């Protein structure tokens, strides 16, 4: 059986997403597989594609709660049953800035048990993993604000086509090759030194921060509050890898968008194989935002890492530092 070619349509606004999915299916002559009425994650649609043996290609709409990372993983690991040809993210120009600052959480119904994800993170990932970002309801935006929006989308995902919706908008290309591992997000490109956004604006910028020393957890917590206050500008997105001095043998994922911040343990140094490469020695972070004061942000990040005296005291002394962050449990510990 030949794989079903899939163009996924995602986005936070249901009406605009549904309307575009229908239009794309009609224009391209593909079968439409709509999202379920609850606007949930909708990964059940992926399983349903196995039975679309009468068609070669389909437009599949996914609900607002879909995690784009899971979507790409599901559609590229269906044992050859599906071929992901493109991801179109519908962005409502009127609401997207508010969507990126949301502080609520969404239940992931497809996950075992009760699992929630920050709504702003879902919106951001849908933009980051799209092959095309289609901006709708943009006509009433002032030119300056529209320029900022286009540049921000391009910074969050430098390899996506960013388009303004209109009656003559071309059907998005479907020659994108999606694999389970993707480097589309802007923060990954920043870390890899391959960051080249297609659209720019004076107010939108990106910054790469690196430091080999671990972070003092108490000073880091204060830094996060300062970042959220807007003292350095509006940090829309920051992500990468870091280490806390109180947990020096663990590399953590730094994942921040809007008012949401999470630190997730990724790897234990002593559990790595000989041929594995460290994700990070200290901090390796990418920042994207509006009106960013790079010098001030970098200075305060430097102030959050260990001082010369603290570093010289060694890991035993670091264990006595105040650590306001929740305990971590790695995957290996949970399986024991």
TrEMBL record:
InterPro entries xref list: CobW-like_C (IPR011629), P-loop_NTPase (IPR027417), Zn_Chap_cDPG_Synth (IPR051927)
PANTHER family: COBW DOMAIN-CONTAINING PROTEIN DDB_G0274527, ZINC-REGULATED GTPASE METALLOPROTEIN ACTIVATOR 1
Domain CobW C-terminal: 204-305
Annotated TM spans: none
Name by which UniProt lists this protein: CobW C-terminal domain-containing protein
Pfam families in the record: CobW_C
Taxonomic superkingdom: Bacteria
SMART domains: CobW_C
Source species: Mycolicibacterium murale
């Amino acid at each position: 059986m030949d794989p079903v070619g899939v163009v996924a349509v995602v986005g936070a606004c249901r009406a605009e997403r549904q309307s575009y999915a229908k239009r794309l299916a009609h224009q391209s002559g593909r079968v439409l597989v709509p999202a379920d009425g609850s606007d949930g994650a909708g990964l059940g649609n992926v399983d349903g594609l196995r039975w679309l043996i009468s068609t070669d290609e389909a437009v599949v709409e996914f609900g607002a709660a879909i995690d784009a990372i899971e979507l790409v993983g599901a559609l590229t690991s269906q044992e050859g049953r599906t071929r992901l040809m493109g991801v179109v993210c519908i962005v409502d120009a009127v609401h997207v800035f508010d969507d990126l600052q949301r502080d609520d959480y969404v239940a992931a119904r497809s996950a075992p048990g009760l699992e929630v994800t920050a709504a702003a993170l879902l919106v951001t990932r849908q933009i980051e993993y799209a092959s095309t970002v289609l901006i709708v309801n943009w006509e009433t935006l002032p030119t300056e604000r529209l320029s900022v929006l286009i540049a921000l989308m391009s910074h969050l995902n430098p390899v996506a086509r960013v388009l303004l919706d209109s009656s003559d908008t071309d059907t998005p290309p479907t020659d994108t090759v999606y694999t389970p591992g993707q480097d589309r997000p802007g923060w990954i490109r920043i870390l890899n030194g391959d960051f080249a956004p297609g659209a720019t604006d004076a107010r939108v910028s990106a910054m790469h921060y690196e430091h080999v020393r671990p972070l003092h957890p108490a000073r880091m917590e204060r830094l996060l509050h300062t970042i959220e206050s807007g003292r350095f500008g509006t940090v829309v997105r920051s992500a990468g890898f870091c280490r806390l001095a109180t947990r020096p043998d663990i590399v953590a994922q730094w994942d921040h968008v809007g008012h949401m911040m999470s630190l997730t343990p990724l790897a234990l140094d002593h559990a790595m194989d000989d041929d594995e490469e460290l994700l990070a020695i200290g901090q390796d972070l990418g920042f994207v935002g509006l009106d960013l004061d790079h010098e001030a942000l970098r200075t305060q990040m430097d102030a959050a890492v260990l001082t010369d005296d603290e570093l010289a005291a060694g890991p035993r002394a670091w264990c006595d530092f105040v650590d306001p962050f929740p305990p971590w449990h790695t995957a290996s510990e949970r399986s024991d």
